[in-house]
Amino acid sequence: MDKIQELEQKPIGKLLIQYSVPTVLSLLINSLYIVIDRMFIGNISEVGTLALTGIGLTMPITTIVVALSALISMGASSNISIKLGEGNKEEAENFAGNALSLSIVLGLLVTSLYMIFQNSILGWLGINGEVLSYTKDFITIIMAGTVFNMLGFCLPFIVRSDGNPIFSAAITITGCILNILLDALFIYVFHMGIKGAAIATVIAQFTTVILGLYYFMKLKNTLILKKINFKLHISIVKAIFLIGLVPFSNQLFVSVAQIVSNYSLNLYGGELAIGAMTVLNSITILFLMPVYGIAQGFQPIIGYNYAKKNYGRTLKTLALAVLFSTGFLAVSAIIMQLFPKFAVSLFTQNPELVNISINGLKKYTVLIFLISIPTFGSGFMMLTGKPKTAVILSISRQSVILALTIFFLPKVIGQDGLWFAQPITDLLSSIITIILFIKGYSDILYKKNINKGIRKTISRIL
After folding, report:
1. How many angstroms from the chain centroid is the CA of residue 275?
2. Could you give the angle at the alpha carbon of 17 between the alpha carbons of 15 and 19, nearest 5°?
3. Alpha-carbon dihedral of residues 83, 89, 93, 94, nearest 10 degrees?
């Protein structure tokens, strides 16, 4: 059975595992860069709490870099897969080369803009006082390595699209392990503090780039990159941006929400609340990555079967993905409710910060299982001819609902409003997603044979 036939005939559960596992592993490994850095930084003697606060305040900046990386990487990898599927190897190579060129150009642009306007940017984000020096030490080095960051994000995606998910995972894992070793070396042996953590991250990202380039220069593979492939073409850039628009907009508006969040956190809880939110995000990101990986993995299954008008199979795939992810997050929520102190203590030993973080984690994650609904809902809409609805849904969740909730809720119920803002956002976003979904797909939702098939699939799982 070839790849096209299996999308239409292979059991959905096996397909979801096949297409999701490599992406889940990749996202988990990439997220470990962030999480491990924060573990080491938060446990730096005497200054760990201030350093965590500084990282929290600069998250809107680093999130913009992630948004640009997602724009290029996901847009290019999808196009490469399509072109290889069509047998158009030359065009696939052009997409790969253009993606790397875009990463370099945009990386240099972002670094230059940050270096020129550094003081203004940090001031606008409200970073001042004692935390400013720690923030500058970290973010300046990180931003100096933006090109390596973006290339290190992009290359594993391209390698995976070339049909080598194992090597893609291997280079990411190598970078992650190196980051851990260098964190320990620079922080605890050379006593370089937060600067050491930033340098370790950049070196690890640079290593990922070298290994990714080695794959295309020395190893046997489908894509062979030549100088001509790196010349930017407007049509290719447009095609990359078109597919990468949704993940880009998601991350971009996360940055907007983070700015509003930091303002409210500082206003109602001070620097410790910002540090606590950094801890909460670091913990929950590990539980959310499998869900985001499945949301990427189900794309070819949904896209192909919807185009073939296999609506029953399409909806079964969506139902199975949502059901599994919701169950996984529900178990995760229970774990975080039962063992919050263990999770928090990995990032800080400061008693006051530990107490605030534990209180926040319990409230912040109480409805985390609902995240599956807007995540898969917007992804499904993007793949089935409703891109405007998908983008609006994603933007409204991050930049409108969450921003407004975290801005106004603390005015009503005090500091707890900082932690309850996320679950309320997840609830409202889920309700809106369900309403839009029923309205947009009513023509296929109420077909008896389709409903019967979905119920049968769910009953088998349960």
Report:
1. 20
2. 65
3. -70
List C-alpha distances in Å: 205 to 11, 18, 65, 147, 155: 38, 27, 14, 9, 11
Number of Cβ within 10 Å of residue 90's Cβ equals 12
Long-range contacts of 417-421 (CB under 8 A, 24+ apart): 417/268, 418/261, 418/264, 418/265, 418/268, 418/269, 418/273, 418/277, 418/360, 419/280, 419/359, 419/360, 419/362, 419/363, 419/364, 420/363, 420/364, 421/261
- For residues 169 and 26, is the Cβ–Cβ distance under 8 A? yes
User: What is d(CA 249, CA 245) in angstroms, rounded to the nearest whole number?
Assistant: 6
Nearest to 193 by CA among 55, 35, 31: 55
Rounded to whole angstroms, the maximal C-alpha distance in the chain is 67
Q: What is the pLDDT of residues 107-151, one digit of tens each?
A: 999 999 999 999 999 999 988 888 898 889 899 999 999 999 999
Alpha carbon of residue 249 to chain centroid: 12
Give me Rg for the CA atoms of the chain: 22
The whole-model pTM stands at 0.85
Question: Which residues of the chain register pLDDT less than 50?
Answer: 458, 461-462
Domain range list for the chain: 3-461
Instruction: Please name which of 295, 436, 297, 284 lies closest in space to residue 362, comparing C-alpha atoms.
Output: 284
Number of other CB atoms surrounding residue 256 within 10 Å: 18
Pick the closest to residue 126 from 292, 273, 7, 8 (CA basis). 273
pLDDT tens-digit series, residues 411-432: 999 999 999 999 999 999 999 9
% helix, strand, coil for the chain, step of 5: 85, 0, 15
Round to whole Å and give the CA distance between 194 and 183: 9
CA–CA separation, 297 vs 13, rounded Å?
A: 12
